[in-house]
Amino acid sequence: ECPPAPFFIDYDYDDESSSSSITFGFAAVSPSLSSSPLFHIQMRLLDEDSDPAVWSTISQTFAARRVRKKNLQSDSNSSYVFRYRVRDSIDYLTPWSTPSLPMSTLCPSSPKSPTPRLKKAEKASVTLTWDHAPDEVTTSDDFLGYEIFMRLEDSPFSSIGRVRSNEVKKKNLDYTQKYYFRIGVSLSPGSGLGPYQISPSSSALSPSAPVTAFVQRSFPPSLLTRSGRSSAPSPLGRVLPPSKFILLYFSAHWCGPCRQFTPRLAQFYRSYAREYEFEVVFVSADHDSKAFESYYNGEMPWSAVPYDDDSREDLQGRYRVSGIPSLRVLRSDGTVIDENGTSSTLDEKAARGWRDRADQKAGEGGCGSGCCNHHH
Prior knowledge:
By secondary structure, the protein is α+β, with helices and mostly antiparallel strands. It has helices at 135-138, 213-218, 236-239, 256-276, 289-299, 310-318, 348-359; strands spanning 7-14, 19-25, 38-46, 56-62, 66-72, 79-87, 103-104, 117-122, 125-129, 143-152, 158-163, 167-170, 179-187, 222-227, 230-235, 245-251, 278-284, 303-304, 323-324, 326-330, 336-338, 372-373. α4 crosses α7 (348-359).
């Protein structure tokens, strides 16, 4: 059986090389076919001189389902199609996929539709906004509106409608899913104002997940989460759903005991956070944002309150943090389970004990030794 066609994810233009890139993806491969699939990937340039029977190979043993093909022509007439077949380390497991739909490169000389961005995430919906096209376009009789395209994580983009304003609210979304959006300026055929290229993709967007009243009033709408070597904002409900208990970690890079404790907490988090459903939230006591970013992105796998958000200092004051490192363990409703988490053994017994107390009743504790004085 032929695998489904590759689908477009995004495109970009590199000023230094004066070339474009196209990012495309494949659907997940059934585990019954292969638990560690590889992909033989080919491409073809669509132009008048190209032979439809001639394909060029990008890779014979590509291991990921997301491919960024660089160094492509970047004129308005350049389009490419891609195909793949699944293999393992020994043999091919499928015939060639259906070829993709034509994918055009991003041409710097052609007008580009504005990229959508998140305005508001609500329960089961997201509101998008974008910069308007120039007045000469939006006031023209040839302007038909903005075409909205959406896709899920492992699916191709499809049109979901057209609007004339620079804002749209998409309803009936699932907060557990990630959604991506593109915008296309729609003009009458033959208009001298275009054609406009469809925008690059938005970042991954999700509706807000349900949160407790304590979480809603204590934290900003988004917390930072790790993404590779950097960090990016994630909706509060995705990071701190009601099912998770919370470890507030007050720490700073300038504090020696903190630098000793953080690797222990990181190992504990990686080992037990998923199984026992908890999240560590870093509340920085660093002296500036650069120190915060270096410490967080360099050593911490969990979430963080943005350095410039007021709730960072509010949390330090509310929990009367006078010494760091300090680890306060809370139920999702804000009840304190353990005021002195830094004295914990940080093993599975500790994770199970906190989980049990989060499900039942609060505990007690106090600040132990091995702290740096921190005056807020």
